[in-house]
Amino acid sequence: MKYSLVIPAHNEQDNLRSLYQATKEVMDQMDGGWEIIFIDDGSDDDTNKIMRELVQKDQCVKMIEFRRNFGQTAAWSAGFDRVQGEFVIVMDADLQNDPKDIPAMMKHLLGKDLDVVSGWRRHRQDNGGMVLLSKIGNVVHRWMTAEKIHDHGCSLKIYRREVLIDLELYGEMHRYITALLSWKGFRVGELEVNHYPREHGRTNYSVKKKLKGFLDLIVVKFWVQYAARPMHFFGAIGIGFIFAGFILGSSILIIWLLKITGFANSSLPLLAVLLVLLGFQFLLTGVLADVVAKTYYAQKKAYSIKETIGWDKI
Fold first, then answer.
1. In whole angstroms, how large is the CA radius of gyration of the chain?
2. Confidence at residue 289, expressed as pLDDT on a 0 to 100 scale
3. CA distances from 161 to 39, 164, 233 (A)
4. How far apart are CA 276 and CA 246, in angstroms?
5. How many CA atoms lie within 13 A of 295 on its CB side?
6. SS3 66
7. Where do the H-state alpha helices sit in the chain?
């Protein structure tokens, strides 16, 4: 098995057959065996039924059915846990990504000796509000992660399988996989790809998801810089508070000893004590965070599978 395609879908009944056909035409022309892993992310239309039809029709097609809607990050994680291919290709099921871009992306990945190649939707075909939010998000993303790619939100990506080992995903973290991989030292590149307007169904993206994604970006920023030693982050803050508390307390003590003024009705002594206590609290938080970092998300999965179909094919 050379290629594994991971395609999550939530209420995409009108797109699946066309997506499968377009993808099959491309993959049949490529060198090496392939598989498609569809993930039904809690759909309440005929998405599940169509996936089952495709599994029966083509031995290269498999599916995972979630018990409910867990989101794209969980769907990708479930697919990554079961891929068999040397290269893992991810894309959306809404026909806005173009499977015909896959050969060029593979050529770019191999030619540049990359571990990951990400699509760049330079001419994005979405409504103006979402495009504006995405542009702002991309700017903030590059600023906070120092990552160079232009379009971190593009779902169309190709990974070497080994880069996905031990990659733990949750929340809306699928948007920041390349940042996490860059932090680990993998080589990440990008290539301009096609992008088409959605013709069927409704988009699953919203301002609410963008906000959740931004909050996860803060976590990524912390994780990239302080995952191994969160004590360096919390400890620095704690030492700063303790130092400020001691400086304020020492100043108050000197002024009191010199009888320059009294502090009977002043809250400054309490502030000095509070700063020191806050400092020690941050130091304790750093110690606890160091402990938690050792077992972070190691024994959990962000999804629950109802059924897997297609892995028993000969």
1. 25
2. 66
3. 18, 6, 32
4. 7
5. 5
6. strand
7. 16-27, 47-57, 72-80, 102-111, 128-145, 177-184, 207-226, 231-257, 268-294
Tell me phi and psi for residue 148, to 5 degrees.
Answer: -95, -15
**How far is CA 198 from each of CA 201, 216, 311, rounded to the nearest angstrom?**
8, 26, 31
7 secondary structure, DSSP code: E
CB-count exposure of residue 76 (10 Å: 0-12, 13-18, 19+): buried
Residue 152: predicted pLDDT:
78
| Alpha helix segments (H runs only) across 13-71 | 16-27, 47-57
pLDDT at 154: 85
118 in helix, strand or coil?
A: strand
Rounded Cα gap, residues 36 and 5, in angstroms: 5
Question: What length is written for the chain?
Answer: 314
Which residues lie below 8 Å from residue 279, measured CB to CB, with a gap of 6+?
237, 238, 239, 240, 241, 242, 243, 244, 245
Between CA 288 and CA 307 the distance in angstroms is 38
Q: Residue 103: CA atoms inside 13 Å, Cβ hemisphere, count?
A: 11
- Walking along the chain (314 residues) 10 residues at a time, the average pLDDT comes out as 94 94 96 95 94 95 94 90 95 93 96 94 68 66 70 89 83 75 88 85 58 64 64 78 88 81 76 88 73 55 78 68
Listed residue (225, 79, 219) closest to 159, CA to CA: 79
Rounded to whole angstroms, how far apart are CA atoms 270 and 99?
Answer: 65
Q: How far apart are CA 75 and CA 69, in angstroms?
A: 9
